Amino acid sequence: MSIASSGDNTSEDVSGYAVQLEDGIHPTQETMIGISRSFNHFMKKAEKKQSKNLLKLVEKSTSFEGVMNFDNYQVQLLFSPRLANTWSLPVVSLTCIAITFPKISKGKARSLFTSVGEGLLYTGMVEECLNTASEYADIQKETVTLWHEVQDNKKWLENSLETHAFRRKTLVEILTWFVNKAQEIVTEITNKGFNANNPPKKLIAANSMYRVAQTIMLDYQGNNGSISEKELFDLICGMIADILAACLTNIPLVIMKKCNESASEASVEAAAKLLGSTRE
Predict the structure, then answer these.
(1) How much is the pLDDT for 22?
(2) Residue 197: helix, strand or coil by DSSP?
């Protein structure tokens, strides 16, 4: 818009850019001022609720390499066709693995857990707004259910993620455990048969974990097992940060769609709050 570079030209009428009412009706200056004040009020209120933990995590992202690296195409498919993916599901799978490392302090694990919880609120908004096809909607629902299970019961598909269960395991043994558990679930479901157009939600979650855990295993073995537990934890955190950061670049588009698709006060209020809470 030309107004964006107009500098001191504050007299130009921008009402046409801000709001569209019924045909032939133009908002008064008082109406425009009221809308502006209302929007700013919601935005400033939301700014006070910045997701500080999430911000610290995404600041670790220096590129978007993690978006490519979490799923290695050398990992053999357990069934056909290849399932669609979302931003949120691999983040949950990666987090489940990272929080089981016994030598990582509880503080670090808790910080990651909190950051991911904050991040999933926004990845969910992006997915609901931009990935509306039914196949993505099913994955989104399963991810929400999966995260609640992790968050409330510290379990992944009914398997405990408590640290004491992994205390005596090596990194290879931990990764193998996730690979085997995921493969067992996938094999059990595929042996019974399923509708490829509507795969069971449990299959979606297990397949994601299988591919993510196998990918990390390949990376670990590619380094001859020389990566320490802390280094692998940081590597996984980096992948999570990259995925979240890449997803968050879609927030401006989500805000625009919320304003454009509905003229309701609730929709515009939601857009203002989203802009405020994600400004940093």
Answers:
(1) 60
(2) coil
Closest CA relative to residue 161, chosen from 235, 95, 233: 95
How many residues are present in the chain?
A: 280
User: Taking the domains of the chain in order of start, what are their residue ranges?
Assistant: 20-49+252-277, 52-249
- pTM comes to 0.85
Question: Which two tokens mark 248?
Answer: 């968050």
CA distance linking residue 232 with residue 222, whole number of Å:
13
Q: Which long-range contacts (CB under 8 A, 24 or more apart) does 32-40 make?
A: 39/268, 39/272, 40/272
Write out 79-100 in H/E/C secondary structure.
Answer: CCCCCCCCCHHHHHHHHHHHCC
Which residues are bridge partners to 155 per DSSP?
Answer: 160
Residue type (1 letter), 128:
E
Tell me the C-alpha distance between 90 and 58, whole Å: 16
Confidence of residue 14 (pLDDT cuts 50, 70, 90): low
Angle, to 10 degrees, between the axis of helix 265-277 and the axis of helix 251-261?
Answer: 170
Give the other-Cβ count within 10 Å of 136's Cβ: 16
Tokens of 255: 């805000």
Give 143-181 pLDDT, tens digit per residue.
999 999 999 999 999 999 998 889 889 999 999 999 999
Q: How confident is the model at residue 2 (pLDDT cuts 50, 70, 90)?
A: very low
